[in-house]
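Suppose you are handed only these lines of text.
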Amino acid sequence: MTEVLRVEHLSKHFGAIKAVDDVNFSLKQGELLAMIGPNGAGKSTCFNMMMGQLKPTSGAVFLRGENITRLAPRVIWRKGVGRTFQITATYQSMTVVENVQVALMSHNHRIFSFRPYAHKLFRDQALGFLETVGMQDQADRHAAVLAYGDLKRLELAIALCHEPDLLLMDEPTAGMAPKERLALMQLTASIVRDRGISVLFTEHDMDVVFGHAHRIMVLNRGRLIAEGTAAEIRNNTHVQEVYLGGGQLYKKSEEGSINA
Ligand code: ADP
Ligand code: MG
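From them, the structure of the protein bound to magnesium ion can be written out as follows.
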């Protein structure tokens, strides 16, 4: 399988804090890869470096073999790296379908226009993206009145408008109820399957991670301490120590899995 993303010796230090410390991994086309780890492990810092928001202290990020380490976020985004934001970024005053239309206009380099025909531009295509995320029946509702889970699905539709071949999702299900979390990840997994895109995501809910990720990496204090399938990660004693030893955030369920 083709390698889409490769991270080599990536580090970010904030003074004495080694937020990310010599991280190495790669992501193949069509892969759904999870990065897990306790709060403060360095996950968001890692994501921000891949998206160009933060300059690494050292190391490099390669997109399909091209070094993108010091490129601006917009340039990286134009190369096909999409992201969904932890803080939902939609225009609340517009309808659901208009939000998707604006994203399509931007993708097609059209300046958003308030002229009378603007509401027709890309409407059919926008409805298609809404169908992909199961929101076509909410197309004409105002984004401001959407339930939180629906906003996150809208955000995913908007990210897809730019036809990314890599999606970075930092806690896409933060603030969602457990059922909604599973639904969003199921949807993401089906999009990965149908479109052959690659996804790297972080997530606190271990049911979501173990249920959907093809492969899992564990970050602790800036360092990658394990990588493997759900079964391998579950049975990894070092990982169990990190999650269980310090009593941080996670407890072991009766089935032997690690739950939030
Ligand atoms: P995670 O996303 O895994 O919870 P973060 O990447 O947000 O972890 O944070 C990793 C570490 O880096 C934490 O100790 C955090 O306090 C520190 N950190 C993150 N951003 C900054 C910053 N801008 N300045 C100083 N320290 C930071
Ligand atoms: Mg984070």
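What can we learn from it? Confidence is low (pLDDT under 50) at residues 246-260. DSSP finds nine helices and twelve strands in the chain.
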